[in-house]
Amino acid sequence: MLDEETERGAASVEHVGLSTLIALLLIAVVATIGADGEIDAGRDLGASIARRIACGPHLPDACRHHPLAPAYGWPLARLARALAPKPLAKPGPSGLPLAPVDFRRCRRESCAVAASPHLTASGRRTTAFVSLRDERRTLGWVELTYWLYRPGLGWERIVRRAGQAQVEAAAGTPVLLKDDPALVPLETLPGRNHYEFPPGETPPWQWHVDGRYPGWSS
């Protein structure tokens, strides 16, 4: 067990390291501004640093790529985007049209009321959760299941299957974070099996989707 002096010493080393890092970042900002003669250059560097800090806890490559890419690889990520269903609204218990939304951010009808094909009245993006089975080696197809959540209605399941020819045909499909619906791979969704839902809205996929953590030790 570490004694108090050892703990203080370790903390001091960490503080020195952190202070050094901050000093180096400040020097880089000043140097950038001095070289370009513009404040905007320093702001750009600061924004880049902020993005990297924010991306730290995410999956590998989350700062650069759509979450589908580390989950499935680029060919199947493009296929998932190419086959994604249109985010159609459906009447909810109150009769209002409800769009599929991200259950982590919206669990009430009021925030899921559709205002356009891609946004709700409260500004929420339409969202589809995805799970994938790659059976090309044995059965010759890839199965993609899209799970759409609407508060008060629960989950809708849409299944798409594609062969290798369709995978290759999707090679030119862009996979962008801004695309609608937003696609969230269940295989890399932290804590997916432990979210609690009201009766009747428990996800059919809970405890049935194997995790994938590319780049992580298991």
Task: Explain the overall architecture.
It is a single chain. The protein is α+β, with helices and mostly antiparallel strands and about 220 residues long. About 30% of the residues lie in helices and about 15% in strands. The chain has 5 helices and 6 strands; from the N terminus they run ααααβββββαβ. The chain has a 4-stranded mixed beta sheet. The chain has a two-stranded antiparallel ribbon with strand order 1-2. Residues about 1-15 and about 50-60 have low confidence and may be disordered.
Short description:
The chain is α+β, with helices and mostly antiparallel strands and 218 residues long. The chain contains five helices and six strands.
Spell out the key features of this protein:
6 strands; 32% helix; two-stranded antiparallel sheet; globular; alpha+beta; 17% strand; disordered N terminus; 4-stranded mixed β-sheet; 218 residues
Query: Spans of 5+ residues with little confidence (pLDDT < 50)?
Result: 1-13, 50-62
Structural class: alpha+beta
**Order of strands, widest sheet:** 5-4-3-6
Q: What's the order of the H and E elements?
A: HHHHEEEEEHE
Q: What is the total tally of β strands?
A: 6
Strand content: 15-25%
In quaternary terms, these chains amount to single chain
Rg calc: 22 Å
What profile does the largest beta sheet have?
4 strands, mixed
The share of residues in helices is 25-40%
Helix count from the secondary structure assignment: 5
End-to-end distance: 28 Å
Q: Write down the overall geometry.
A: globular
Report the mean per-residue pLDDT as an integer.
80
